[in-house]
Design goal:
By secondary structure, this protein is α/β, with parallel strands linked by helices. It contains twelve helices and eight strands. The protein has two domains: about 100 residues, no CATH class; about 160 residues, Glycogen Phosphorylase B (Rossmann fold, 3-Layer(aba) Sandwich), CATH 3.40.50.2000. The radius of gyration is 21 Å and the shape is globular.
């Protein structure tokens, strides 16, 4: 995430036969980034859409989610009579579209937990506007802005949630959506880059865009109507897809291959790596 360093160091390292790899996951464009790209052998990013320039130097390595930490509770028990709980984890910013989630939840009986605070230097009016929206819709009793919290507390909210929501738009391949999926929570998104992870559940979990209040509300209602077992099956499929494509071992193996060779590992070598990793984990448990 330091294109300036790649631009400055790239020529010196290249002259000594040391290739440079730039790691960049953001949609922001800049002259520094173009310079760093020109001076690098390869670029790695979480997804094809998370690097803002079209280049054959790009290697997609995934996001690196700790799926041992972000996991369903081992003794999780569904609460039958409680109102559904929707969780959205994101900093308070217009680009995260919490207003869409609030509007969608207002048309249901669900509770809403908005987890995340405003970044330093961000406009102060956004949080005030969200609170005014909540008041205007008359849902103060079931919608809470919880602010920033440690990862362990975020994990507990994921585990309590009936559904998670992530309204980050195209170009923002948000790892918070992957975290909730890793916890086995059905997660509604609007960024089409997540579609491969959603699989057959994409029509139920992918909205038309970050301002699609009606589409989000409809999907929430349909998810709430499912049984706990049906939602758990959706969550399990999402978790498996995240483990395969975005776990820490998967990302690390791809990154090391790019650093060593400039290319991603073959599917066969990756399968051997995963088998060896599982064997080591098994031996540690013995």
């Amino acid at each position: 995430m330091m294109p300036l360093f790649a631009g400055l160091a790239g020529p010196l390292l290249s002259a000594r036969g040391i290739p440079t790899t730039l790691w960049y996951t953001h949609r922001a464009r800049s002259a520094q980034l173009r310079w760093g790209l020109a001076m690098s052998r390869t670029v790695v990013s979480a997804d094809e859409t998370s690097f803002p320039y079209d280049t054959d130097k790009l290697r997609v390595i995934g996001h690196g989610i700790d799926c041992e930490f972000y996991a369903p509770a081992p003794d999780q028990v569904a609460v039958g009579d409680a109102a559904p709980l929707v969780a959205q984890v994101a900093r308070l910013a217009a680009v995260k579209h919490q207003a869409t989630t609030i509007g969608a939840v207002a048309g249901t009986e669900a509770r809403l937990a908005l987890i995340g605070g405003a970044q330093a230097g961000s406009p102060q009016g956004y949080e005030k506007g969200l609170r005014e929206q909540i008041r205007r819709l008359g849902i103060e009793e079931r919608c809470r802005l919880l602010g920033d919290m440690p990862a362990a507390e975020v994990l507990e909210w994921y585990r309590r949630a009936t559904v998670a929501v992530n309204m980050s738009p195209a170009g923002l391949f948000d790892k918070a959506a992957l975290e909730s999926m890793a916890c086995g929570v059905p997660t509604v998104v609007c960024n089409p880059a997540f579609a491969p992870l959603l699989g057959e559940h994409a029509p139920l979990l992918l909205t038309a865009g970050p301002e699609d209040v009606g589409g989000l509300s409809q999907r929430l209602t349909r998810l709430f109507a499912l049984s706990a077992v049906e939602r758990a099956e959706i969550g399990a499929a999402l978790r498996e897809n995240v483990r395969r494509e975005h776990s820490l071992p998967a990302m690390t193996e791809r990154l090391l291959a790019v650093l060593r060779t400039g290319e991603l590992p073959s599917r066969r070598s990756y399968s051997r790596y995963r088998a060896a990793t599982r064997l080591r984990q098994h031996r540690l448990l013995l």
